[in-house]
Amino acid sequence: MKTLGIIGGIGPESTVEYYQLIIARYRELRRDGSYPPIIINSIDLKKYLDLAGAGKFDEFVAPLVAELDKLKQAGADVGLLAANTPHIVFDEVRDRSPLPLISIIEATREEAKKLGLNRVGLFGTGFTMSAKMYPETFSRAGMTVIVPNSEERDYIHQKYLGELLKGIILPETRQRLLTIVERMKESESIQGLILGGTELPLILRGVDAGIPFLDTTTIHVQAAVAQMLS
After folding, report:
1. Using CA atoms, how far apart are residues 17 and 21, in angstroms rounded to an integer?
2. CA distances from 167 to 17, 109, 134, 199 (A)
């Protein structure tokens, strides 16, 4: 059994869900009454939002590697970043990480392949939707990633930072997000939607939009538990 190290706090609401989902997934696979070994290093979200807002993503790398080293020193065998946006620098972090890391993007791509999807939409923070990480990773498997238009991206980003990261779930926000999904189904022919922000499942999980939602939190958790048990 490998000990999982989680860089959490980015944001806190989804870190809580990661912990709960890992426990639940582990108990589905191991019905012996045991619980998985997990170490959570909860870091300061504001620091990274400030850097992202200034476009200084290169300054994510050294601090994240240092936080991963804390997990290594605490006894973790494998690690993950419990958020999508820091994956903008995932390759650089992985190259310097003291722990093997599980990529949320690569795990989501594999799930999309299993579902036979070729053209998928992407919701997330403005940083995630503007980055190349999802399109480039998916294109290597022959899949296309489509982002909302600029007005829609601005709306999603504002609601993400202003509501979802604070645990605020509003019906009118959910409805507007679903309206954007419908528009992308009709005009962009998307076959599925990547919930490319770990807070997005909090507002969209269980909603039927006529296409599959790729819940990156759940997908990441399943990949992590499989790694722990491997």
Report:
1. 6
2. 12, 27, 25, 8
Q: Are 102 and 223 contacting, i.e. CB atoms less than 8 angstroms apart?
A: yes
Buried b (16+ CB within 10 A) or exposed e, 147-172: bbeeebbebbbebbbebbbeeeeeee
Show the beta-strand stretches assigned E in 158-212. Answer: 192-195
For 21, the token pair is 């989902």
C-alpha 153/C-alpha 125 separation (Å) is 8
| H or E stretch covering 14 | helix 12-29
C-alpha–C-alpha distance, residues 180 and 174, integer Å: 10
Point out which residues pair with 78 in neighbouring strands.
4
Q: Over the Cα atoms of the chain, what is R_g?
A: 17
The pair of three-digit structure tokens given for residue 27, joined into one six-digit string: 């108990």
Convert the pLDDT of each residue in 54-89 to its tens digit. Answer: 999 999 999 999 999 999 999 999 999 999 999 999
The pTM is what?
0.93
Q: Where are the beta strands (DSSP E) in the chain?
A: 4-8, 38-42, 78-81, 119-123, 144-146, 192-195, 213-215
